[in-house]
Here is the input.
Amino acid sequence: MMGDSTLLEGGPAQPFAGTPADLAELRLRSAELASRLGLDEEPFVIDEERNLIQVRNVAGFIALGDSTIEIMPNFLRHDPGWRVSFLTMLTTVNLFEWIPTVDRGSRHAGLPDLLGMILASAMSRATAEGMPRNYVERTAELPSTRGQLDAGKMWRRVIDPYTVDCRFSEFVADGPVPSALKWACGELSGAVTQSWLEAELLHYVDLFPEASRDLPPPAVLDALQLTPQFGFLHDALDVSRLLALGPQNGATNRPGAPGRAFLWNTDKLFGDFVEVIAEKSARESGFTAYRGASRRFGGTAKIGPSVDTIIESAEEMVAVNVSAAEFTEDLLEELTGPIVAAGRELGASDVALVFPASMGLRPGTQWNLREPGGPSMLHALTVDPSGLGEMGGMARVLKEFELDLGAVLTIAHRRPVGSRRLGSSSALA
Here is the structure.
């Protein structure tokens, strides 16, 4: 493509590398994407006079007529392998078994190209080893009988006595698996930056002509299982699922409009990722973690969105809120009031805020809270998703957060008994 560029989410405005028509299309899509992603503001700030764009609160890629924009999440800006780390976060929060890996040949490929290579590799193998097959009911005019005669069309023999209308079953490469893969090949063919890969994906769209090119319904796609014979399609099928996630992805709502957008809300992605690793880290340490305080406590309205996760030991409770924004003193002040109020409502011993790793925040920083009847301490924790694509990257992140959670609960446990508030009968009153 002509205008390929990588932008930093939350970074300064950058020149737009595409055509004026592409820029106009991006401006039209920005409002639509804000609605689809549940954003409070449009993700693209566009200065058409100076040909500048700025990105807010999304990451992924968007393909326009003659250009592709790749967007790096701010919390991965120091990660040379950010694309694989980003994909790993997406697969982790959606509980996929696939853990992305790259070889030397694909290390510097863009996001759509990385996903396209996985699909192309699987489809290439499918040409030799086959695709899952299903019996499909067919009707056809044939020179001889096959299956059953179509009694409703017997009158046609008066007009054409040399053919018969038949109804029969055919065992073909059709069904939700080949359809999902063909759909993904079609979507990525218009987004990849390498011409050879585009041609290969388009070729695979036309492969297995019996299969539909339509994406299966979400419930069907989620429930798909592969037999060991077709295990080589597992990663490619997860790519299809990843691309199909949420209403934000795929083509525009405007018929005939160019381009595909595969973007994710970075606030939600980072929050969901922290919640997943909190659950895993707590389990390894003998604690309990619950994603969503309102679900844990029966929809307590007063808690609202201020608490993302509850961490409990046998005697202590810590209410946790997650922010994808980089730590600043102003942000700390903004978030402290709501989390402390929610912690008081829950009867939490302590409260904690989780931020992406930052030079401006020392891990394990804590502040004493002096409000009567509320939590005793506010903890600032960090999570660094950089390097998730490296060997042992996920294990490192889990271990670091496990140690942080252990330290927080140990500090709470060492307080005088009278300072603990877990178990109070009025905690949720």
Notes: The chain is about 35% helix and 20% strand.
